[in-house]
Amino acid sequence: MTQPDPLFSSRFARALASRVLVLDGAMGTSLYSRDLTVHGDYCGCENCTDILVSTRPDVVGDIHRSFLEVGADCIETNSFGANTLVLGEFDRADKAREYSRLAAEIARAAADAYSTADKPRFVMGSMGPGTKLITLGNTDWATMLASYTEQALGLIEGGADAFLIETCQDLLQVKCAVNACLHALERLGKNVAQVPICVSVTIEQTGTMLLGTSIEAAAHALRRYPILSLGLNCATGPTEMAEYIHWLGKYWDRHVTVAPNAGLPVLVEGRTEYPLKPGPFVEALERFVSHSGVGLVGGCCGTTPEHIRQLAQMVGTRPPVREDRAVMVPSCTSLYSPVEYRQDNSFLIVGERCNASGSKQFKRLLEAEDWDGIVAMAKGQVREGSHVLDVNVDYAGRDNARDMREVVQRLVRQVDAPLMIDSTQVATIEAGLQCAGGKCIINSANFEDGEEKFDAICNLARTYGAALVIGTIDEDPEAAMARTADRKFAIAKRSIERATRVHGLDESDIFIDPLVLPISTGMDDDRRSALALIEGTRRIAEAFPSVQITCGLSNVSFGLKPAARQVLNSVFLDELVKAGLTSAIVHASKILPLAKINEDHKRVALHLIYDMRDQSVGGTGLPPADERPEQEVALA
Ligand code: THG
Predict the structure, then answer these.
(1) How many domains does the chain have?
(2) Ligand 1 centre and the CA of 125: distance in Å?
(3) Which pairing describes strands 294-297 and 331-333: parallel, antiparallel, or unpaired?
(4) 550 alpha carbon to ligand 1 midpoint, in Å?
(5) Per-residue pLDDT at 627
């Protein structure tokens, strides 16, 4: 017996599991068609429809009833902009919670009046995107979190059955709103099992969300959140949504929502009109329900009670049907697109150069605050073949969290590569995550400072939906960094168990870093560390096949001359990949294909890696004298 997932246990979730539920149609365009006065009804706040729950609850209730009357199972509260950010533009920031509560109460009363044992009606608390987006720098995470939390508190207090975070434009906005719902639930002693969260993003006519995010990237970035249903609403009619709905139906492992506009808007005598008639609107949606598994279906701008009447007739009491099913391959994402963690016949290449202690050039650019120069460096790494970019701004004497924000904010929009947010400080990591809409990889957690800090970083992974690198270091001050395969394995096991069982992270989102130490120091103790790493990697890969394994490869050859480093790094990487390494932090253009490495150089590198000091390397086994590192000469 599998445990019932609490996500699917509410009355609303159980109804959704048994049959397709019909959502209502347009609230906004319905309100605009009523005769409402700017000075009276809108209190002078033109277009602030959220005020109407206070001034004209009768009108709002009427619109709800017009959709319930024709068979809608769910109605959306009139609270699209009832958050402090939007209401703040009308000097009413302090009304967010009250308006949201009133909106939910009005919808609750209407829904309850129409509910029967056979056909319960549900209230979905509408949470729109607002007018300020974090990714565009219009606001920040903390402000938006507070704004949505007020709204979510009011919606719960007013009796909403579920949240509908809708018309989403920006992944950071979605992540922030989901967290706000979770905070509000916690503050009121409830959880997502009681009031589930549904998310609906807007795919523009361009085929992406407003900021360029593909539906695949959105699904991967949101995958780890307790979202009951993911779908699309607004911007286009149903036909234009078909490709994306089909993709969600195939890959998204929970419910799928759709609420299109009544076609693409047209301007008629200076007014926006939505031309798609109920017949063709419902015909298009029928395919989504009976082929693409859509379980929650309704209308957005321009859809009338007649659209919803015909929709409810078509849906009847049928269950959703999915024709194609496939699993999402574990991936991280940029703001724009996903990148799979596992690369065929290769490894996930994480560019190492945006690192204040790993690149003199980067350090100089950071000191000069030459942000454009940093973006150019990042782009260069992508051109050279990096799949992901490591970003590390740790630097004594500077405000690291601020630097992280400055850098990440720009990279996110200008570079199409997922980011690995690298810092030893929790606050610096969090500053980066608050600017990156895509699914990032946190670098890194470990047990060096005990479980408390490890837990804090796991919490960041949960809050921001990120993957996590975990280094095999523990509290033992004698041997903090695991130098033997046994200790690397033991710490990896302990950390995987804690991250998955205590924090609910998915095994596939964990990148174990068994830690590369330089073997080029000339110190006896260091020589066997490469071997320990290969053996440790092999054992971790065997025991945890769905975990990712990564390392900071260039560490192995610190101090050697550049030409020797390229050879040693490349040969070592090949051995590690054969042992099960799936990813590495590298300077992509400095990794040589094995076929391009001179056999003798390869032999020398292998001697060093496998610590075969007793065996002769042979007279011609070394790189040309001018590139020959001292340590290597000493060894030979
Ligand atoms: N594990 C994890 N993360 C890491 C590391 C790791 N992050 C940082 C580091 N180690 C990996 N990144 C680098 C980056 C650069 C170099 C080494 C590791 C490097 N740089 C040249 C040098 O110092 O000689 C400088 C090059 C230049 O100035 O251009 O070698 O182990 N999880």
Answers:
(1) 3
(2) 48
(3) unpaired
(4) 13
(5) 43
Out of 402, 429, 456, a domain closes at 429
Same domain membership, residue 422 and residue 458? no
Closest protein CA for atom 22 of ligand 1: 358
Cα gap 356→209, rounded to integer Å: 33
The range of the structural domain enclosing residue 226 comes to: 8-315
> pTM of the predicted model, to two decimals?
0.95
Distance CA 82, CA 16 (A): 26
- Do 376 and 305 share a structural domain? no
Residue 180 falls within a domain, yes or no?
yes
Element of type H or E holding 380: helix 371-383
Q: What pLDDT, on the 0 to 100 scale, is given for residue 480?
A: 64
| Inside any domain, residue 435 | no
Q: DSSP string covering 45-110, please?
A: -TT-GGGHHHH-HHHHHHHHHHHHHTT-SEEE-S-TT-SHHHHHTTT-GGGHHHHHHHHHHHHHHH
Segment 586-634, tens digit of pLDDT: 999 999 999 999 999 999 999 999 988 655 544 334 444 344 444 433 3
Mean pLDDT of the chain: 94
Q: Say if residues 298 and 72 touch (Cβ distance below 8 Å).
A: yes
User: What's the CATH number where 480 sits?
Assistant: 3.20.20.20
Q: How many C-beta atoms lie closer than 10 Å to residue 351's C-beta?
A: 26
- Is 414 near ligand 1, meaning CB less than 6 Å away? no
Q: Are residues 60 and 152 in the same domain?
A: yes
Helix (H) or strand (E) holding 492: helix 485-497
361 lines ligand 1 (CB under 6 A): yes
Choosing from 429, 450, 478, the residue where a domain stops is 429
Q: Are residues 416 and 444 in the same domain?
A: no
Q: Is 375 found in the same domain as 495? A: no
Residue 323 within a domain: no
> Does 433 contact ligand 1 (Cβ within 6 A)?
no
Kindly report, residue by residue over 613-625, the tens digit of the pLDDT: 655 544 334 444 3
From the CB of 566, is ligand 1 less than 6 Å away? no
In a shared domain, residues 369 and 512: no
Asked if residue 302 is part of any domain, the answer here is yes
| 348 and 480 within one domain | no
Protein residue with its CA nearest to atom 26 in ligand 1: 359
CA of 350 to the centre of ligand 1 (A): 11
> Are 385 and 265 in a shared domain?
no
Nearest CA, atom 20, ligand 1? 358
Phi, psi of 162 (to 5 degrees): -155, 160
- Nearest residue (by CA) to ligand 1, atom 30, is 554
Around Cβ 486, how many Cβ atoms within 10 Å?
Answer: 13
With residue 586 as reference, give the H or E element that holds it: strand 583-586
**Which residue ranges in the chain fall short of pLDDT 70?**
1-4, 479-480, 613-636
- Here the tokens at position 501 are 């069982």
